[in-house]
Every structure is written in C-alpha cells, then in structure tokens.
Structure prediction request, 351 residues.
Amino acid sequence: MNLGRAGKVTLVVFGTVILLVIIAMTVLAIPRTPNSTRSLEFQGYISLPKGTRSRIFTALDYITIDGSNLFVTNVLSGEVYNVRLRGDPARDVPKVSVFSLEPQAHGVAVDPISHLGFVTRSEANTVDVFDPDKMQLIKRISVAEGADAIIYDPYHKLIYASNGEAKVATLIDPVTLTNVGVIPLGGEPEFAVFDPQTHLIYQNLKDNDSVAVVDVATRSVVQRWPLPGCGMPTGATIDAAGRRLFVICGKTATFVALDLNTHQIVVSLPIGGLPDSVAYDPELRRIYTTGLAGVMSVIQQNAPNTYRILDTVRMHYGAHTLAVDPATHRVYAAYLSLFVRPRLAMFGPRP
Prediction:
C-alpha cells in the first residue's frame, strides 16, 4: 500500500505518541533508585499494599508523621496507610494497616488529645474521622468543596482544613466531631502552617500568589502578604524560632524564605521542577523540597537570611510529597507507581 505524504506524517505522529506512552509507562513502572549524597543516605523502600479500587496506578499524596505513626494517603483508591515506625524501618519491616473508603483522600491530621485521625476527601467533600489503632471510620463530617490540606491548631484545639474550590477553611472540633466554623480566604488555598508564637495560621493562596494570615479566634483573615516572584505557592513550613516561613513556588520552581516580622522575602533559590512539598528539620537546620519531577532539593539554613543548596537527589517521577521525622531525622518521600506496589523512599541524614 502506497501512503501519501499526509498518511506518512500521521503514521510518524502516531508512532511517536505510542513510543512516548511506552516510555512514560516504563518510567512509572520501574522505580528509579535514588542516589545517596553527602547529606543523605538512601536506606531503602517501605512497600505499601496496592489500592483496592485502583490496583494498576497509584498516586500517593500527603505524608503526616505523628510519633511512631506515619500516615500517607492514596488519592486514587482512597486508602489511608498507617506505617508503624517502631524499631529501625531500614532493618525491620514496618507493620502497615489500611483504612479504606472513597477515592480522593488527601491530608491527615491527628488530634494529640483524643488521638483520633482526620482525613480530607475532596470527592466526597468530607473530613472523615478515624481510629488510627483500628483504622476504622468513626464519623463523616461534611465540609465545603475541595477539602485538601489539613492541620491541627494546638492553641485553639481545632482541626483546620483547607477547601480549594470553595476558597475557605473549615474548622472542626475534635471533641464534638462537628463543623464549628468556616473562614473565607479570598483565594484558592494550598498548604497552611500554625505559628506557635502568634497563634495565627499562615495559609498559602495559589491563585493570587500570596499568604493569608488567619486568626482562628475571630474566624477571619487579618492580613495578606504578597509573594512577588513566587508563582503558585503550594507547600509551606515554618521556622518558628527564627521567624521564617518557608514556601514552595510551583510555577516558578523556587524556594522562598519569608521574614515573619517584616513580611518580606529574604531569599529565593531555584529547586526541582514542579515543586509541591517542603519539610523542615529544625535541629539539623535543613529544608527538604520535592515535586512532580521527582527531584529532592536539600537546603542548608546557615542563618535566618542565609541558605544554600546542599544536595540534589533524583528520585522517581511523581515523588511530589515528603515528610521528615523530627525524632530520627529520616526523610520519607511518596512515589507514584504503575503496576508495582506503592512505596515510600527512605533517607537517613549524614552529618
């Protein structure tokens, strides 16, 4: 059969698309072993069960460490995994238990008084209360659209959940297990952090490149701080003692440090592509960032206004979320996976 020019072009384009799909599937199906660096030693993987609803493709989301429990969510299947970190997880296989419900599971917060867990579900528009020991549902609490990031406010003793589509924050009483307030944010929220000195919450707003300062006591936004040069702020963490807010900028692939006294950006550093998550180890004074490109940046804080890129660790594509254990200083990163079991990459710090 003699193909015309248009037919040949179509065939080439179709073949190229098929090749790219095969390459993408291969990249996801074969997890890349991270390189050890001068600041971090790769210590292996923690394997998780496959999702009951999505057994082919797994997208892990937020990681929360509460004592010896590490919680990580499976967005597509809705599972919440509890990885028990007792002993040495680099040597002893951790016990993993699962709480399964509808898809679109995102953030997890734990009430330190009742020890109950709270997980956001954007598809169901709920915050689900569960027992971390039995990994069973206790109650569903209806919230506004787009429930995503969630934290515990230790001063007001409330659960604070960000609702992306609704552009609000929802407050939940962990004693009565009820929705006790909604705070209009004036923008689409991403991650939020609690400031133990001022008792305020700093909430990233990704659609207007700013930070909303939330006063939970008055149920209002009391200030708005612009983040010039920071496109689409996503992850956030805080150095409360040094009065610095660390923000990850997804669109501009940068890390910025914001002075909480002057509300000015004091440093901006380029980091891995499509960054999403950030964690801070105050004892080692190290900041860890990662994103969809699967590149973890290790940033050393030499002084409140002085930072340098210490290392770059190439992980697996889609490893966009991480957490640091303040007790052991280990860093955990969650992987996307295709066909294989979902997993967490584990790193130990070098001096």
Summary: The domain at 31-349 is CATH 2.130.10.10 (Methylamine Dehydrogenase; Chain H).
